[in-house]
Amino acid sequence: MKQQILLISPPFTQLNTPYPATAYLKGFLNTQGVSVHQMDLGMETILALFSKDGLEKLFGDIADSAIAGSANAQRIFTLRENYINTIDPVIRFLQDQDPTLAYLISERNFLPEASKFEQIEDLEWAFGTMGIRDQARHIATLYLEDLSDFITEVVDPHFGFSRYAERLGMSAHSFDALYGELHKPATYIAEIMLALLKQRIEEYKPSLVCFSVPFPGNLFAALKCGQWLKQHYPDIRIGMGGGYPNTELRSISDARVFQFVDYISLDDGEAPMMELLNYLDGHIDVSMLKRTFCLVDSVVTYCNGSLRPDVKQENVGTPDYSDLPLKGYLSVIQLPNPMHRLWSDGRWNKLTMAHGCYWGKCTFCDISLDYIKNYEASSATVIVDRMETLIEQTGERGFHFVDEAAPPALMKAVALEILSRKLVVTWWTNIRFEKSFHFDVCRLLAASGCIAVSGGLEVASDRLLQLIAKGVTVEQVARVTDYFNRAGIMVHAYLMYGFPTQTAQETIDSLEVVRQMFEQNILQSAFWHRFAMTAHSPVGMFPDKFKVKTLNPEAGAFAHNDLDHDDPSGGQHHLFSAGLKKSLYNYMHGICFELPMQSWFDHKVPETSLPPDLIERYLARPDGRETKATDFVIWIGGPVTFDVVRSTLSIAARQQTIDIRCPQSEGLWLVEVLDAMTPERETPSTYRSLQENYDLNGLHDFTLFWYGGVMEELKRVGILVL
Questions:
Q1: Which of these, 58, 122, 394, 658, is most buried using a 10 Å CB contact count?
Q2: 483 with 447: CB under 8 angstroms?
Q3: pLDDT (tens digit, 9 = 90+) per residue, 560-602?
Q4: What's the pLDDT band for 559 if we cut at 50, 70, 90?
Q5: Strand ranges (DSSP E) for 394-497?
Q6: By C-alpha distance, which of 256, 217, 260 is closest to 239?
């Protein structure tokens, strides 16, 4: 390939870790021998803005007379010298380069404080007297958020730490608003962004620049960069792909968009990229591109004549994070919640276990699109190989698997592979709360380094869960979250309100379910989302089946995804937004469980129809799980010895030595078989093979032994049946 490629993540996504799309694509292109670089333009812009030089210029460009905004903005401007003098140390602290600053920050007399501090938590209650670094990280985060509010109010209304000009890209059926905004002079933030882009263009000298646009909040910045490249480097070709085009731009017809980009590719980027390179090198005609929009004779044309198949998951390569400022990302803590902070604290290596969703039935989800419907899993061996490669490359042992829903069987296999290699890692992922996650599976995942899972409880109503085709019930979700918690794995629940035909009673009952789950301590974190109808979901494609009517069913010339709709048989969903969020905030902090539902809402709501001990009753029921002959039996409890004199089996667990009284014949047998049942053994034991081994050693009545006191204690300590 002749092309020199630069992959760019435009402002803004995350502060704590790179968005993985460019690293994924770079990893694949490496396997093809393609010359490619990447940059996180969002993170580089943040670091340039939130620096002493950046703030000096920001405040210096603002005249005193210009601060006619809120009292909060005036206060921050008055304290500008404090912000300028403290910003570099704070950034270094949030990058884990100066941890001792925590003591100074925690005293609350070092950093200037504005409106974000008005309702600050009781920090000692939230973090404890010893959590100085976490407490300081939270204070430093509020300090940055104050500056962000100032920038948004006084300097650039489009600014946000995880988005830029988001409203312009959301549900933009017409390109008019974006087009008009793009022709305005560059804002202060855009000037920083474009100056950094210029540096990288001159450094890497690319012939092709590709922007990954995962969210609406990345679109404006990508197009602004494209506009600048067209003006200053007209020979550079410009491509765009990612989550936003995949969902919003599948029917684009407005030719004006191609004043800013040359190619817009859909779905998995590997094969479209290779065909684009072939086209630019003159090997194929434009019609032979793959899933790519471009202008042909001044008309927006979808070119998809390529016969090149998509790349198998086994062959996409290992993500490559080189070129990115891995030590420059900021670990922030917005809320003192151990599960919630995973999204913003710590630099996680991002990986995917499987492409698409193994379930693929949820009626609110875009299951008609390739990134959901085309399910393909990697092998556990390949996944853990990639984990080891990334540890060597980045020095980081934390992994976030960004699957739509990680397959339970593959999660088990990955956990066993991690344990068999004695690999030390920390990981978390997204799941469905399905019955495959029984207690022993959760214990296995925890032993391999899994610390948290997130999954959809959604509407928390059995009728609506069935309508959604989620494949779970409230009882099942409660039991699975309990298993995860008992295994030491934190749980975050995605919650939804406003699904078609959902009544006010069902909304309040859903909130009651959530209240009880937090009260039972089987959820650590959650978030309410207002239902949004999308054009590529079953609800959007077949609204009549769900008793709703779409108000804007026709595609616009630009974006087409979110659909306005009328729900005549449902409640007034907008009235519940504030109360749901307020109650959840308190429940996540472990308080206010005793308050009646009415106290959270400004309008009259029904009382819950659910018993106050519903979740407690669900958890008290026996799980009814039976051991099958083919179930694998593994041992994770630690080294085992047998004291013949005392007839005692001793297990050297990590925290303590556990002694179990045991007959000599069984004790000696257990020492042998438990060692053979550890995950690193190549041939795993099954219940049947264990029973046969027991009988061959002259022991009798394995069933009685399996359910006896010795085995019950061993199951508690470290025998897992999978």
A1: 58
A2: no
A3: 888 888 888 888 999 999 999 999 999 998 999 999 999 999 9
A4: confident
A5: 398-401, 426-431, 450-458, 490-497
A6: 260
